[in-house]
Amino acid sequence: MSKTSRPPLKFAAIGLDHAHIFGMIAAIQRGGGTLVAFHATDPAQIADFNKKYPGVKLASEDEILNDKSIQLVAGAPIPDLRAPLGVRVMKAGKD
């Protein structure tokens, strides 16, 4: 199957605390991924993200991890939250 015949990879972002999330998102999009959801709780982060990616769904972490259509999660939370998020993402099969 060629790359162009595959359905796009649907992915989400969790943890917008570090700006490198935007580079991660851009790289996945360049590879053909479609950003479909994000999770954040800080109103300023949510507003900034909505400006940069209008129309992308704000969702709870549980919604993202339980959504069977989402295949990958990119994350950039504060450092001490990265490993626990990574474990939850792996357990959900989205790594």
What does this structure look like?
By secondary structure, the chain is an alpha/beta fold. It contains four helices and four strands; from the N terminus they run βαβαβαβα. It has helices at residues 20-30, 43-52, 61-66, 79-91, and strands at 10-16, 34-39, 57-58, 72-76. The longest helix is centred in the C-terminal third of the chain and has 13 residues, at 79-91.
Layout of SSEs?
Elements: E1 10-16, H1 20-30, E2 34-39, H2 43-52, E3 57-58, H3 61-66, E4 72-76, H4 79-91
Parallel strand pairs: 1-2, 1-4, 2-3
The largest pleated sheet is described as:
4 strands, parallel
Q: How far apart, in Å, are the first and last alpha carbons?
A: 22 Å
Helix content: 40-55%
Q: Which blocks of ≥5 consecutive residues have pLDDT under 50?
A: none
The succession of helices and strands, N to C, reads EHEHEHEH
Residue fraction in strands: 15-25%
Average pLDDT works out at 93
Task: Provide the descriptors you would attach to this structure in a database record.
alpha/beta; 4-stranded parallel beta sheet; 4 strands; globular; 95 residues; 42% helix
